[in-house]
Design a protein that fits this description.
Rossmann fold, six-stranded antiparallel β-sheet, single chain, coiled coil, 592 residues, alpha+beta, five-stranded parallel β-sheet
Length: 592
């Protein structure tokens, strides 16, 4: 399977797509058809370039590989092109190596330095700056120090092995002596009775230990309960419950407040209706009006008495005052209700807390009595056990003091022997590591030395790769110079007629060939092909069709994908063809 590329606004390609297959791929087209831009699009997908098309605000490259899809977005921000996305090469070390030694377009730094006759030392060793050699050396030294410490422990273990082995042998012999002595002491006829007494003594001691632990637990429990009881009793004594009942007063005030509320609502209704009749001058709706010179007389619509509107208004004012009085009285009752409810809640809470304290105190007192009774019983049982153990110990001690001593010695020797055997096994395990640790230390030292000599070694490998490549290419190309080499300082030197010649005297094609060979030397020395699957080649106008074909044949197999550009007349090249005829490219004025 190959790679599929989709391109939008990258270099001179506004829109286009293409497929490249494993092996050799040629982008064949005339000038200004997007050949170089296609290679720049591949570099963008790799993550080493960001050539956004001029006057475009955004662009993208999508690279679909058998292992997944990679999309790189380009955006112009404040006059700067910003790249984002998941390029195929995400490690800076890989990108630097690819840009220098795999992407051999016209702007390749090594090709350009050869054209200009500049020093190649910095370019051919630049990846070393990203290898963090000193940091890696420090890490390896730290690891070697740890190995040294382990190795020292292993050597010490090996030196201690003989003495520990001798101690194990001595303890084995002593253990056998003690076992024989124990057997001789347990041969009498009453051995069964003595064994039974010992078993009983062991059982009583175990029961005593359990009883002692039970006494301790019960003592702690009694102490905790007594402490809690003291706290609760203190709180109970300090708790005061008011001896009063506010419920009757509260009920009466609530009833009175409700009665006032009803009266106020009724009076407000009467007041509002009569006031509206007088305010709107609609008295005739309710009674007759007699108009006179000094004023209108009306009959009260409730009692029928003759009166006037001013008197009615005065009566309404009296009614308003009465409503205000009742409202104020109801507000007083509201305050009194709130006060009484607070008092009632305090009384309830205090009563509830008192009852809860009385219950908890009662429960704890019962629990304390139970624990104290259990504690007393346990102490009595413990005293009985102590008496029985003391009596049995005296009986056993009189008959088997020596057996006890032998058993004690036997247990001690068994424990010591087990410890020494474990120590012996541990020492043997550590001693056995010496060879492995020595090899590991030597490997770490070799790696440290390799890192120390990394720059020198890479220079040597680069020069050797250059020498091999130039020798191979000189057999294939008819050049005007006889040989070329890189000095120890990476100065490019060519020889013609047995003497050093100036680079200025070489043809354009020869300079391009030397630049490519120098880059390929870095490609070989830094093993770029293991991490960068593509090799790009562009702007080889200085090479004839035959020489281009020879170069492609020489490069075949150096990368999984080889992509190069060629003119239409170079139609004899054996490679998969990338046809740019369907691409939307910038006009010829853009000078692709």
């Amino acid at each position: 399977m190959g790679w599929e590329l989709t391109i939008e606004n990258v270099a001179g390609i506004r829109e286009g797509s293409a497929r490249i297959d494993p092996g050799n791929n040629v982008v064949r087209a005339a000038n200004w058809q997007g050949k170089s831009s296609f290679l720049q699009a591949i570099e963008t997908a790799m993550g080493t370039a960001a050539p956004l098309t001029e006057n475009a605000d955004a662009g993208r490259v999508e690279l679909e590989t058998p292992d997944g899809t990679h999309v790189v977005e380009l955006e112009r921000r404040d006059g700067t092109v910003v790249s984002s996305g998941s390029g195929l090469l995400f490690d800076e070390y890989d990108r630097i190596r690819a840009d220098l030694y795999a992407f051999l377009d016209e702007d390749n730094a090594i090709r350009d330095a050869v054209r200009r006759g500049e020093d190649l030392a910095d370019l051919l060793t630049r990846p070393l700056e990203f290898e963090n050699i000193e940091e890696r050396i420090a890490e390896l030294r730290s690891e070697r120090s740890s190995v040294d410490a382990e190795l020292s422990n292993a050597e010490d273990a090996a030196s201690r092995l003989p003495s520990v082995q001798e101690e194990v042998t001595r303890l084995d012999a002593r253990l056998e002596e003690l076992r024989e002595r124990r057997e001789s002491l347990t041969e009498p006829d009453d051995a069964d009775g003595e064994e039974a007494e010992r078993e009983e003594l062991s059982r009583l001691r175990a029961e005593r230990s359990r009883t002692e632990r039970r006494v301790d637990r019960l003592s702690d429990a009694v102490e905790r309960i007594e402490g809690t009881l003291a706290e609760l009793r203190e709180e109970r004594e300090s708790l005061t419950v008011p001896e009063e009942d506010v419920s009757e007063e509260l009920s009466w005030i609530r009833d009175r407040r409700e009665s006032i509320r009803t009266d106020v609502e009724l009076l407000r209704a009467v007041y509002s209706a009569n006031r509206r009749v007088l305010t709107e001058g609609r008295v005739e709706l309710l009674t007759d009006r007699d108009r006179g010179l000094l004023g209108d007389d009306v009959a009260c619509w409730l009692c029928g008495t003759e009166t006037d509107e001013e008197s009615l208004r005065e009566r309404l004012e009296d009614l308003s005052d009465r409503i205000s009085e009742l409202t104020a009285e109801r507000a007083e009752y509201d305050d009194r209700v709130e006060e009484l409810e607070e008092r009632r809640d305090r009384i309830r809470n205090a009563t509830k807390r008192r009852d809860e304290l009385d219950r908890r105190i009662g429960d704890l007192e019962a629990k304390l009595a139970d624990r104290e009774e259990s504690l007393e019983s346990a102490r009595e049982h413990l005293s009985e056990l102590e008496r029985r153990i003391e009596s049995l110990e005296e009986t056993v001690a009189e008959r088997d003091e020596e057996v006890t001593d032998v058993a004690s010695d036997l247990a001690r020797v068994e424990t010591e022997l087990e410890e020494r055997r474990e120590e012996l096994e541990d020492l043997e395990r550590h001693a056995d590591k010496r060879s492995t640790l020595t090899d590991e230390r030597e490997a770490l030292s070799e790696e440290i030395e390799e890192l120390r000599n990394r720059k020198t070694e890479m220079k040597r490998r680069t020069r050797e790769a250059f020498d091999e490549a130039i020798a191979d290419l000189l057999d294939r190309f008819d050049t005007s110079f006889e040989t070329a080499r890189l000095t120890s300082e990476f100065e490019l030197v060519v020889a013609r007629d047995g003497r050093t010649a100036s680079l200025d005297a070489l043809s354009e094609g020869e300079l391009e060939l030397l630049g490519i060979v120098a880059a390929l030397a870095g490609h070989e020395a830094f093993e770029v092909g293991e991490d960068v699957p593509v090799l790009l080649l562009d702007r080889l106008g200085g090479l004839s069709a035959g020489n281009l074909s020879t170069l492609v044949e020489y490069l075949d197999g150096r990368a999984e994908y080889l992509v190069f550009t060629a003119y239409p007349e170079h139609d004899a090249l054996e490679a998969s063809v990338v046809d740019p005829s369907e691409w939307d490219v910038v006009s010829a004025d853009a000078s692709l």
